[in-house]
Design goal:
about 130 residues, alpha+beta, 3-stranded antiparallel β-sheet, 5 strands
């Protein structure tokens, strides 16, 4: 899996070199904040750059991103397929975070008959067949 990274800037310390850094998610958010000089309860940060399979905003919640990255790393879904899955099934990052664990993903199948013929276990609520782009 490709690493998902964010460049986070402490808005109170942005003139200092220590007030910003790259982080690979998932990461301990308290440790992340501490390493750029932010108090644990502060949200005075900005994501100025990122390397993600989907778009994020500068003020996206770090805990939300961390949870999504954890869900992606625990799933069998290739990160490069996340943008298309998000567009099709999840209108925002909060719903992606909540719903990703309910996705059973079958790559390169034409319909759901193919995977159902190969598996005999109960299925999760959302299944998708993906032929790729």
């Amino acid at each position: 899996m490709a690493e998902m990274k964010v460049f986070v800037i402490n808005l109170d310390e942005q003139e200092k070199d220590t007030g910003c850094a790259w982080f690979t998610l998932p990461y301990n958010i308290e440790a992340l904040k501490q390493s750029i000089g932010l108090p644990p309860d502060s949200d005075r940060y900005l994501i100025s750059d990122y390397d993600f399979p989907f778009e994020i905003l500068q003020d996206t919640d770090l805990d939300l991103l961390n949870n999504i990255c954890l869900a992606i790393s625990e799933s069998e879904i290739p990160p490069e397929d996340i943008p298309a899955i998000q567009r099709e099934w999840f209108p925002n990052l909060q719903e992606l975070e909540a719903g990703l664990c309910n996705v059973t993903y079958h790559r390169n199948c034409s319909d759901m008959e193919e995977p159902s013929e190969r598996t005999y276990q109960p299925v999760r609520p959302l299944q998708m067949c993906w032929s790729g782009m």
